[in-house]
Design a protein that fits this description.
Blueprint: E1 2-5, H1 7-11, H2 20-38, E2 42-46, H3 47-54, H4 59-68, E3 74-76, H5 80-91, H6 96-107, E4 112-114, H7 118-126, E5 135-136, H8 138-143
Parallel strand pairs: 1-2, 1-4, 2-3, 4-5
Helix pairs in contact: 5-6
């Protein structure tokens, strides 16, 4: 299984865990990491992901996230094909960073891109026919509720 986790997924364990949905998404992200560590899943990341992590303002959180990035099997680089694909996705309403994440995930030939960003999930659902892999909430993906 080749998975792409966006920055929202990486940050989910640091969010307020009082809401059940956030706790469940955190557990799903932890399970994905466990499968990467123990079950041979591949975490495909990107330059976009490493850049966003480098911009996390909380130094302690940033250090933890940077440590997690060592688990990436592959780091997709941004090249002209990624930029062109991201531009196409931006025309369809995706924010720049989200479009770059999707383009990198597609270039990395992932089986699924995981995100906890509700707005991204909504737009990805509307644009599913033109996106080359499923984009899903980690809780829904892990539990099969998709």
């Amino acid at each position: 299984m080749r998975v792409y986790l966006d920055t929202c997924c990486l940050n989910r364990p640091f969010d307020n865990q009082e809401q059940e949905r956030i706790r469940e998404e955190t557990e799903a992200v932890r399970l994905v990491f466990s499968r990467i560590e123990h079950d041979g899943w591949e975490w495909i990341g990107s330059q976009v992901l490493t850049y966003e992590v480098s911009m996390v303002p909380d130094a302690e959180r940033r250090i933890i996230l940077e440590h997690w990035l060592f688990w990436m099997s592959t780091k997709v680089t941004i090249d002209e094909s990624v930029i062109l694909r991201a531009e196409d996705l931006k025309i369809r309403g995706f924010h720049t960073a989200d479009a770059l994440h999707i383009a990198c995930a597609e270039k990395g030939a992932v089986d699924v891109m995981l995100t906890t960003d509700g707005q991204l999930l909504h737009l990805a659902g509307k644009c599913a026919p033109i996106i080359r892999m499923p984009i899903a909430n980690p809780r829904e993906w892990i539990t099969g509720e998709r």
